[in-house]
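Lay summary

Proteins are chains of building blocks that fold into shapes. Our project writes down both the chain and a compact code for its shape. Here are two examples, one after the other.
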Amino acid sequence: MTPTEPRLEAVFTAEVTVGAAIEAGGTAGLRRRIVPILGGAVRGPRLVGEVLTLGADWQLIEEEGAITRLVARYAMRVSDGTVITIVNRALRHGPAAVMARLAAGEAVDPALYYFRGAPSFEAPSGPHRWLSESLFVCSGARAPRAVVIDFYRVA
């Protein structure tokens, strides 16, 4: 018996508007930051809606700035009014010069750095319950005032 090979199904893209980072001090060689989530849009083959104006990215950044580990907690309201919460554990890293440009708020080609995550969703019973019953991965790109994230269901 051989397990089936996983494949990725595109679910949606979220364009998440973010606020200015709040520096939250350091610990054990890491810098802590909180980046407020201010809203955004959700568009895709399986979901359409809005990112709600609440939540944040909680980041730990190595002192050199080359690696950022983050946990984003936020919510979206999809077209039928259902509110779905998201917890996305992600990793962003790249060459020091590239990461310095991102930190300075520059637009940087996403091919120059690694930005991937493992989101999980909490959805109520009903038509969106499948979000709570599947595994997902995502790929991100950091713009000066937003994060663009493509979400995929592992099928």
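And here is the second example, written the same way.
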Amino acid sequence: MIETPSLVDQYCHGVLRTELGLGTFEAQLARTEGPPAAGTTLFDTQTGFAVRRWCPPLLGLESHASPARYLARRRELGVLESGRRLLRGSGITTYLVDAGLPGDLTGPGEMASAGAADAHEIVRLELLAEQVADTSGTVESFLANLAESVHGAATNAVAFTSVAGVRHGLALAPDPPGPGEVRGAAGRWLAVRRVGGALSDPVLLRHLLWIAVASGLPLQLHAGLGEPGLRADRADPVLLTDFVRATAGLGTDLVLLHGYPYHRHAAHLAGVFPHVYADLGAALVRTGARAAAVLAEILELAPFGKIIFSSGAHGLPELHVVGARLFREALGRVLGGWVAEGAWSLGDAQRVAGLISAGNARRVYGLG
């Protein structure tokens, strides 16, 4: 009854170019910090069951095919053909791709080709800073090159994204650090850093965020438990409240990614601050068959023009399919139920579905 013909996936990663066995597939299925416990499988999760429900028919099998049979069919088709079938069967027509994860992952251009869709780049700030540090010999050149690189990236990217919450936690001081503070932090970091070393200094993380804010592009902030390494006590988006307040009125939209299990907190911030948006990605993919209940909780607090769909997918094209299918089903169940009860009109339900599916993302990211 509720139609969502076009989906804009506002945050995802590319897919692996390599063939996968059971162990490597499971490692991508759930982003844990190790293999499943002995005698168990990560297919026995909400995400695993959702993959077995939605993906086998796209490869010519029945729903709920066993993991062994599904992976055998995947290998039979080959990684390119199975990826093409899955991405094109997801219903996603535009991908916004964060290419900042390590591994042999496809970029935006390849995602567009395989999925017969549009694709745009999201630039990960911390990776950009690390690349600049690899080629900058002094503190002065690093800081100058960093500002120039962020400015240059803003001409082609649709958004910046930051994993400051993963590297340090979301309770960063809200104000921009001063020039002396930034030079001191850069000097200390560069003095001990080896090529490829990760950025986790809180002063430089704040400096990066404020450079990004000055660019005017939307800034995505990872919150909740959607990323490995995020500690629960550091991942609650309410820890960003002072930063959110400090950036109000500056013309930069903030998008709180993932959110779950603090999705109500993210929805609250989206309701209070005009420039804050709440993402649905991990909140729905992690909860699988319970996704409709989680979506209803987000809709309790956030204005409908402030909620944006994403798959949050990484590595497996199956996760793009699951993100899209779970979203569509959850949206249909929640909004369709309200229409059936007489609480909403069908026209209003369809309009809100269009906003969350694609319209809000097109407006925030300037996609036309």
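What can we say about the second shape? Residues 13 and 101 are 8 Å apart (CA to CA).
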